[in-house]
Amino acid sequence: MAEPAARRGASLADGLASLAAVLVAFVFLFPIYWAFSQSLRNPLDTFTVAGFGIPWVNFTPTLANWIDQVGTPETLRSLANSTIVASGAAALALLLGTPAAYAVARFRFARWKNRDITIWFLSQRVLPPVATVVPFYLVMRALGLLDTHLALILVNATFVLPFVVVILRQTFLDLPLELEEAALVDGASHWGAFWRIALPLAAPTLAATGLIVFAFTWNEFLFAVALSSRNAITVPVHIAGAVDTRGVQFWFMGVRAMTAIVPPVLIALLAQRYIVRGLTLGAVKG
Could you give the angle at the alpha carbon of 13 between the alpha carbons of 8 and 19, nearest 5°? Predict the structure, then answer.
């Protein structure tokens, strides 16, 4: 009798855990559903149908909002700007952060401890971005870079660089040092060991890190609204533009929110095989 009772207890625990998971998923997915639902409504349905409106049940869906928004030059320009800025910032951060992470993981410095260098990188992320808006604005104005892609790429790369260094440093620490030592014995330089041995092994983490910093830059609003005015407006700033003298245009905001969500999700789906692949499985045996 004890075994069936234990089995029923385990089933009840599993059921409660599943219910909790469903509730948590609902909380996080509801804003996405809300945006999708709003994007399919007529302006009148936005104010007459409850937030949890179901297409074909509570209202008749329409693609008029999508056709109107996706076809406008402002939407296409904001998507292009976000793609350029996010890709450029992620590439620049990886270009600078990957060698720095490898150096902190593999070398010892005379005047600074590696732990102190890592903490310094982390401190750059702890710094509130709003505290640097005015200095960055003045610098970019002095350089003539206001409302340009380059200004947003440089600023965003600065703030996502600590993520790259910290994440990849731990990855390089976890890689088997014996492989690089064998390459050095065979005559390779430290750069050769990094380029031919460590970097290919860290490729999955490199892809995951690139996706993380891409998403951070894609969603960045503060510097985008401060440093851009027309030509370099990104998707988050474009979403905020759904507010006008008539109030919030929820039907347009829903379309813009969905267009902001789709590209990072597609990139994550395409890169997931690199993210889940093992780093050094079977590289060193015995």
Answer: 125
